[in-house]
Amino acid sequence: MNMLSNKVAIVTGGNSGIGYAAAEALIAQGADVVIVGRRQDAVGAAVEALGERAHGLVGDVADIATHDRVAEFVKGRFGGADIYVANAGVNVIKPTQAVTISDYDSQFGINARGVFFGVQKIAPVLRDGASIILTSSIASQKVLEGHAVYAGAKAAIEAFARSWALEMKDRRIRVNIVSPGPVDTPILGKLGVPDDAREGFEAHLAKTIPLGRMGKADELGRAILFLASDQSSFITGANLPVDGGISLI
Ligand code: NAP
User: Fold this and answer.
1) What residues does each domain of the chain span?
2) CATH of 8-242, one of 3.40.50.720, 3.30.70.20, 3.40.50.2300, 3.30.70.3040
3) Span 3-13, mean pLDDT?
4) Which ligand 1 atom sits closest to the C-alpha of 187?
5) Which of 23, 92, 126, 140 is the most buried (most CB within 10 A)?
6) Which of 34, 90, 191 has most ligand 1 atoms within 8 Å of its beta carbon, as the pocket-test mutant?
7) What is the pLDDT of residues 121-135, one digit of tens each?
8) In terms of C-beta density within 10 A (0-12 exposed, 13-18 middle, 19 or more buried), how is residue 21 classed?
């Protein structure tokens, strides 16, 4: 039986990696899913691959007007939404001395401010009993080289989520976090790992992960589905690591 029949979800960064896998998992359980991404061609291709219950909107999550447009779209088309996955994110790895103001502003703009104002603008069109899921990272807790700015932005959204879990309790809206460890997605290419070095990089990384391998996007998609559905009906304000155990060491 479908867990999400008649439900409407919004997934930012839904054209790639973890967001795409989440959209796939939500659609497989009967939801309509609006994916929000910044590249028209990538959003169009993802919508086509995801099928008729996928809908695309193009916009930059760092631009607050994007969230107004998304809210207006779901209100007009579906009367509201039931699931909001604030997942879009970027990672620029640099030691602190090399970080420019623009690096800092862009990571906080997308990874923290985009999440804050996304939730602020989307919450009014969420139906009571909705579920909000934020994609953070184990980097917020575990010190990784060159990750100070990224870690700070992800730590900020974890703090937002705890506040929102209480702020929205009277509407029975649950707010939770997934914290991925290393997951094989296009983000690795965007970090500058060349395709021909990818295998060696992944093999090296795998040795540092207790379960002995990197995660797969669909493993994150299933964790997001769990938090989105009634399977997690008594969970709010939680931070679920999906990381092969790497945060333990
Ligand atoms: P990904 O494949 O690069 O996906 C990121 C998505 O976010 C892409 O669709 C990207 O669009 C979108 N995005 C980035 N900036 C945006 C903006 N300003 N406006 C709208 N969309 C934007 O990477 P991923 O691994 O799936 O990452 C998803 C989330 O997981 C991120 O928040 C990331 O920080 C987090 N995470 C990932 C890992 C990992 O190892 N993969 C680990 C910990 C946390 P484009 O396709 O146009 O770039």
Assistant:
1) 8-242
2) 3.40.50.720
3) 98
4) 3
5) 23
6) 90
7) 999 999 999 999 999
8) buried
Q: Is 89's C-beta closer than 6 angstroms to any atom of ligand 1? A: yes
Distances (CA, A) of 64 to 46, 70, 108, 223, 240: 23, 10, 13, 28, 27
At residue 95 the predicted structure's pLDDT band, cuts being 50, 70 and 90, is very high
- Averaged pLDDT, 69-94: 98
CB 214 within 8 A of CB 202: yes
Predicted confidence at residue 64, as pLDDT, reads 98
Cβ of 176 closer than 6 Å to ligand 1, yes or no, is no
Tell me what the mean pLDDT of segment 179-207 comes to. 88
The C-alpha R_g of the chain, in whole angstroms, comes to: 17
